[in-house]
Automatic annotation (TrEMBL):
Residues 35-46 have a biased composition (Low complexity). CDD domains: cnd41_like (cd05472). One of its GO terms (molecular function) is aspartic-type endopeptidase activity. The active site is at 139, 351. The keyword Protease applies. InterPro entries: Aspartic_peptidase_A1, CND41-like, PEPTIDASE_A1, Peptidase_aspartic_dom_sf, TAXi_C, TAXi_N. Pfam families: TAXi_C (PF14541), TAXi_N (PF14543). It comes from Eleusine coracana subsp. coracana. Belongs to the peptidase A1 family. This is Peptidase A1 domain-containing protein. Residues 34-53 are annotated as: Disordered. GO terms for biological process: proteolysis. The keyword Chloroplast does not apply.
Length: 470
């Protein structure tokens, strides 16, 4: 049986003049039918339920930096440029087969960032003792945790004071012969420095990089929950477009990510909700949330899709996509288009740092054509950069558009409404927020994830889509 998260047909309501975010209304209220042939994580995995569950706010980069774009079009073009760098970075990591180095429930609010290399969403974390508050990019495709550190041999500008390890009573350098340092070796980034300290180095696809010493430090999350002895990179040489951030919080599927390091304290799980974002707006009203741990990570009624492990890219969270639908019609696509090959090629990665979903060329063409046929009466607009399917809806107060469904292996389906399909790129001009992949890898981007409570249970190998929007 299929799981239906949202209805098949929705109405896109456009407000004229376009001075406020677009509201999406349904012609028929969607019913939530939760049935699936997939099994759910075992009850033993829920042993870490607790009363304390601090939550972190997820904030968009524009909220943190206060960036002001000349127009919505400029904001979207900036996003597309960052997105291109991110997609190329993921493809390069896979092609080189070089994955990055690898209590209590914890949480934080999520903020989205929109710069090349800087990721899309930020959290506020206290580093050291006493804690120095820092904005960190969240990245579900990376394991490493790092912050810029004094003394800076080379540092990029950040709004908060750069972390000074000499002022922290809990800072402890890691030796190069330790097990923690050896965990960095698969990425080719663990080495010995002065006085036997463990040095790390991470490079990103857009030319950004960070390097310094590995240390054990205390991190303080939302609500004042402190975690001691977290291995972080203390970056003395850093370069790139990490606008508004001081570093990165890795959420990947490896031992060096914050989820991997928390281990049993987090139950190997985290959940997040990416707030619906209006490009070009600096409003924080749609902040999302990030929860590290199992109290909020196993919502009752969530439907679970098996995760797929890629030995060539062990930090990435792959899902088994079997097909795509437009409206109530499943497209005639071969499942092999989305399958992860034995050599690590292909497959579908869920990524918080990529905005626009990438699909194999044939799958994208079928999706685009089916969507265009369903709204054939709407006036077309010229392509905008990455987006080749755009419509001028400036003269409309409402239009009907079809939904798009992702069909997963073992019978579950995720059906998306218009807010997860269309991006306003100019006054009244909307574009389909999908693109063809330039590599064999497909990416499920954050535009398609916004507003849905998503749980990653790496301990049991499942990703859950919650029954409620957020």
């Amino acid at each position: 049986m299929q799981l239906l998260l949202l209805g098949f047909v929705c109405t896109l309501m456009l407000l004229i003049p376009h001075a406020s975010p677009v509201r999406f209304l349904y012609m028929n209220p969607p019913s939530h039918n939760f049935t699936s042939t997939t099994k759910t994580p075992s009850s033993s995995s829920s042993a870490h339920h607790g009363s304390r569950n601090p939550s972190l706010a997820l904030l968009h980069r524009d909220v943190v930096t206060g960036v002001k774009h000349p127009s919505r079009r400029h904001a979207v073009l900036d996003l597309v440029a960052r997105d291109k760098a991110r997609a190329e970075y993921l493809a390069r990591r896979l092609s080189l087969s070089l994955p990055e180095e690898e209590a209590e429930d914890l949480g934080s609010e999520v903020v989205s960032g929109l710069n090349d290399g800087s990721g899309e969403y930020y959290v506020r974390v206290g580093v050291g003792s006493p804690p120095t508050e820092q904005y960190l990019v969240i990245d579900s495709g990376s394991d490493v945790i790092w912050v810029q550190c004094r003394p800076c041999e080379q540092c990029f500008a950040q709004p908060d004071p750069v972390f000074d390890p000499s002022a922290s009573s809990s800072f402890s350098a890691v030796s190069c012969d330790s097990t923690i340092c050896r965990n960095l070796l698969p990425a080719g980034s663990g080495s010995c420095g002065d006085a036997g300290s463990c040095r790390y180095e991470v490079s990103y696809g857009d030319g950004s990089y960070t390097g310094g010493v590995l240390a054990l430090e205390t991190l303080t999350f939302g609500g004042g929950a402190a975690v001691r002895g977290v291995a972080i990179g203390c970056g003395h040489r850093n370069h790139g477009l990490f606008v508004g951030a001081a570093g990165l919080l890795g959420l990947g599927w490896g031992p060096m990510s914050i989820v991997g390091q928390l281990g049993a304290a987090a139950g190997g799980a985290f959940s997040y909700c990416l707030g619906t974002r209006d490009p070009g707006s600096s409003s924080s009203s749609n902040a999302g949330s990030l929860v590290l741990g199992r109290t909020e990570a196993v919502p009752e009624g969530a439907v679970w899709v098996p995760l797929v492990r890629n030995p060539q890219a062990p930090s990435f969270y792959y899902v088994g996509l079997a097909g795509i639908g437009v409206g109530d019609q499943r497209l005639p696509l071969q499942e092999a288009l989305f399958r992860l090959a034995d050599d690590g090629a292909g497959g579908v990665v869920m990524d918080t740092g990529t905005a626009v979903t990438r699909l194999p060329g044939d799958a994208y063409a079928a999706l685009r054509d089916a969507f265009a046929n369903a709204v054939a009466g709407l006036p077309r607009a010229p392509p905008v950069s990455l987006f080749d399917t755009c419509y001028d809806l400036s003269a409309y107060t409402s239009v009907r558009v079809p939904t798009v469904s992702f069909y997963f292996e073992e019978g579950a389906a995720l059906t998306l409404p218009a807010r997860n399909l269309l991006v306003e790129v100019d006054g009244g001009v909307y574009c389909l927020a999908f693109a063809p992949s330039s590599s064999g890898m497909s990416i499920l981007g954050n535009i398609q994830q916004q507003g849905i409570q998503i749980t990653v249970d790496s301990a049991n190998g499942f990703v859950g889509f919650g029954p409620n929007t957020c």
